[in-house]
Amino acid sequence: MLAELKHTLRRKRGQLIGWAIGLALYALMMVSFFDSIVGIEGIQEMMQAYPEDLAAFFGGFGAMNTPKGYLEIYYFNYMPVIIGIFTVGVGAGLLVSDEEKGTLDLILSYPVSRTALFWGRVLGLLALNALVLLIAYLSWVLPAQGTGMDLTWIQILRPFLPLFVQLVFFGALALLLSLVLPSVRSAGMLTGGILVGNYLLIGLSNLNEDLRAFIEYTPLHYYQGADAVDGLDWIWLGGIAGVSLVLVLLAWWRFQGRDIRVAGEGSWHLPALSRLLRRDKPPLEA
Fold first, then answer.
1. Which residues contact 74 (CB under 8 A, 6 or more apart)?
2. For a 10 Å CB count at each end of the chain, is N or C smaller?
3. What does each C-alpha distance from 39 to 33, 43, 44, 196 come to in angstroms?
């Protein structure tokens, strides 16, 4: 299991470094802009001049001149989607990418159990997300001490915990779908569509109250974002983490009984449709 964890980190180190550098540079830039942006005279009036629908979609711009509001608008509001792209891609290809390349059956021919392989790579997925967020967190908290962002290191850390749990959820969903759908590509596209659709639905529900009845059943509804600066909702965190664990356990069960392909993508396995397409055509009349 430990060997698979190291292997996952090693093979994804390029993506890890790239995403970490990008997020770090963005965080450093936004921290450096904090004093100048919140110090703009009449910034509240300027924010109120934005179209009401646009402001409502993003949850409002009223508190942008506060540290918590600044973090929400410029970072935590859309980070589940931004970093979620990385997580979904890694989760969808965690196991099945090797199957499509024709190497998974070779790996399993060695004296390594499917359980050790599976959980080692799942731990690798968790470690990758944790490392990306750790670098992003340090890029906020270290330079923030030299600005007017009057937040402690614990207050800045708190919003990263709900973000991590949300990323784990969508990574687990992508992993499960990769073992159900025919390919890594289809699993990644479907999970990414669910993630982006959930984000858009949250924003649209601020404009249309009729949609609020649906978002209560979506994971991003329980995402605190920068509101976690004031304290974590452990019930919400525990609920999303529990659902993520169920998804991972289902993926493990599916992987245990899976027939490993030699290489390439799978099929949809639609017997009825296949029989219909293979049905003998009626003979031509003489």
1. 30
2. C
3. 10, 8, 11, 33
* Side-chain half-sphere CA neighbours of 134 within 13 A: 8
Give kind and range of the element (H or E) at residue 104.
Answer: helix 104-108
Question: The tokens of 247 are what?
Answer: 């998804």
Distance CA 1, CA 164 (A): 22
Average model confidence (pLDDT) across the chain: 85
Provide the percentage of residues in the chain whose pLDDT is more than 70. 83
Domain spans in the chain, listed from the N-terminal domain onward: 2-278
φ and ψ at residue 31, rounded to 5 degrees: -65, -40
Burial of 272 (0-12, 13-18, 19+ CB in 10 A): exposed
Q: What's the residue count for the chain?
A: 286
What is the model's pTM? 0.86
Cα–Cα dist 31/140, whole Å: 7
The dihedral region occupied by 151, where left means phi > 0, alpha psi between -120 and 50, and beta the remainder, is beta
